[in-house]
């Protein structure tokens, strides 16, 4: 239940000249009972249209945030916020311009984990919302208030709001939802850890109990429900909205129409029958585990491959063998699709990796972690320039790599706990540090790269390097299974790692890799392989885009006894 409490009066009070303004934060008594450890954020935003907690981003329009860790909170104590913590986008609070802002205090709660590796760590726990710090059920915040900031006058806030629990979706005729305890993950984290999945079943599933189906694993970020499937026509009264990502009006109508069209295909008598799953595997670091075994996150690769997938196949009549499983996805899901194919080559029969996160760390976006000394700066004999982090299809840069990382440093501190992109990469790929948290690939403040950590990344998670190193062992098992798609103007420069990986794949012998690598001309993130249609359409068609290739793969590799009638193949 969401707490809607009477807002305490926000007052300002003077402080002595030369001192930082006093930021006094109180907590409504009924919200203090289970508060112990966490991170307190102080947020300022220039616009009243968006709450400050939802306005922290990589762009120049970002809200200002300063963070402070706390431990062993005592009821009734409140906080005097320390402004000397690192801030983003302005690092030093003294440089915040005078003006009118909307101010908000926010608490990210931490829990204690006694892991099986002997480390005790304090982290924010996913509450089945997908590890979104600004929406996590139970996290506390104040109602935004307008203030005049002059760098001298103090601010008094009262935290009196709490994020509500997640409403979990209900089963329908076609979509089922499961949640299962993972023994492997529970043993690692020292508490019960669950995996979930949304499952799309084929038509007449209940009527044809003798049918068994191939399994399509759609990897990606934490899904609240199975997306892109709608059994009723689009809402005729739906008003056009504007989608800033694609720069078009009416995208909400397009989404509904595409979802309904997919349903119409799904139930048509000549459409292939198969099962699609979307996995829920959030963790204390992110909305997604990256589906591999990791020193910091735990054995998610084994848990998904050997616990969750067999459980789903048994319950919903999957064929249950590697030749009948296919993986696909974009961005995070693209990396996962390729990673599980490489790390479990016999458990899957093909991957379709669209706009994958860096698959060659010589191009870790715009950084070569093996040769560059610093991730944030390109240094020459007479000058130094910032390394770029984000662009559009014209090459116009909107964020620097340093700023993207500094945002996470302000939000989550030095332990990789921001819940954001660079921190999850670090958590997945790095060894455990002496303090029990991920060992940084580079200093989050300065960008100086740790070559020892880089070498660990290389041996364990650089997918191109692992394929090249082990091709004599796994090449035959990967033949014909690897398909990679990326726009050549990917916003995060992910195409650079794809180029390097393609160079290796094209050089393979005994066997030749036998897949495909394609690029979208001037296509941004996340192009997924269709040269004819715009990405804002094809991103809604992941579950049907690769079916012809999958059909051909099944026709070539399925056992002779496989009943083709349960999965209609085009002749």
UniProtKB/TrEMBL annotation:
<dbReference type="InterPro" id="IPR050583">
    <property type="entry name" value="Mycobacterial_A85_antigen"/>
</dbReference>
<protein>
    <recommendedName>
        <fullName>Esterase</fullName>
    </recommendedName>
</protein>
<dbReference type="InterPro" id="IPR029058">
    <property type="entry name" value="AB_hydrolase_fold"/>
</dbReference>
